[in-house]
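Handout, tutorial session.
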Amino acid sequence: MKRILLVGGGGPTGPLIVNALIAEGHEVAVMNTGRHPVEYDAPVEVILADPNFLEPVQDAVKGRFFDTVVASYGRLRYVAQALTGHVEHLIGVTSTFYPNWIDPPATVRPTSESGVERDWGVTYLDEGSAVSPAVPLDPVGKFGQRVVETDTALQWAHQHGDFIGTVLRYPRVYGPRQPGATEWSIIRRLLDGRQRIIVPEGGFLLQSILYAENAARIVLAAVRDREASGGQVFNCADAEPITHRKWIRLITVTMVKDAEIVSAPAP
């Protein structure tokens, strides 16, 4: 039995992770602000603290130690800093706000100097290896810069022995309890009786997505096999990238509606 803390717990993956850990016999605690209470399969300790700020997390973990912490909510850099010395294995859930992964639209953008489009290619060897040197991630936007800085900080902490670190990078997560219904832009159009939906480039652009249950399974795999997951960075997604066109078609079939897909150039 492990003592495990989940930072978050109220989103699309939280209840799935907590309930699975309870079923496996672990002692589970959840840390969040308490604004979105959730009922789990069994009682768990609820630690009320705002993971978006350093001091509340530091105060909340004083005198505590956890075998594993899954940080899926709040500002991960602060959570990791506050938990240093209080956890053996930290699993940080972050995102992919940088070009060159799966989503083609993110791989071409204007440069700040000339405004000329630059092709970013398809390589993301950010961690480096014995045969390939490390290439710094090039984030998209200021928020992306913060994500990459946090990603780097967690890897640094692992390398310097602060804790065993695992980084899980998510694309867009969909499914029950998602904070913003990603299907709603299509559903609303169909409910309004729209018979045409405009898509970029025929709707054939691929996007990486991750169903909530699949995301939870990835987290649980990292918890169960620390030897395999420790010190690793995982780019996570469903096995099959999906096109905008297929995404729309799946929704129209489910709603028993029909709509013509109209192509427009991406610009």
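The second record follows below. Compare its token runs with those of the first.
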Amino acid sequence: MIFRKTTFAIAACLFALQSPASAETYTITADEDNAPYSFIPFLVRRSNPRLYAYTDPPGEDGSTHSFEAYVGFPVGPETIPEDESVTSATISLIYAFDFDSFGDTNQDPGIARCYEVLEAWSENTLNWNNRPDAGGINDYFDEIVDIDSFGALTCDATALVSEWINNSKPNYGIALKSPTERVLGINSTEAEVIDALKPTLIIQTEVVEAVPTMSPLAIVFLAGVLSMGGASVLVRNRGNS
């Protein structure tokens, strides 16, 4: 019994040395966005309350009415404390508008793809002609398929946001594009809605709390003390029997 108590005491000390973890959540609203329009390639849609993403087939004259949405978030090494690490990062874009502004367009299920933007841009100057590089058509980091109703379009951006926060990759924001004809109309930062309905990034982190540590030598010493105490009790018990 004494041996078991001694072993339990040592195990309890060792367990107490482990670092407990807890979770934190950060909700970050986009600070800039724009959706350039192919039909008027020099147009800067800076203050429009809606972003759009869809691909319009060329008309008889070769023109198109396609849109791509570009969204920036103020995220970097200073976003979370140094003792936290990203466990998940989700981009939420609220699909709330459809084809009404463009006449009778396609209503088949749509597809939305999230891309990492690779070049700097500004919402004050962005247009179709100068839109930044966002990789090739298949370079998206997440994809939402079978979109047939309004709601949140969410992209898993954990890996990308981790790189922004670790300062291993510059933050140029993301682009939302669609290879389908369904018009995806999204609230912009200019929309008169609450922040949660604007482009939002939700980051969850793990917090490792610093606790005093014990050196291996101290652990051995503690184990020896506990063992000697147990032996002394055992000798006394035998003397009283």
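Points raised in discussion: The chain has three helices and eleven strands.
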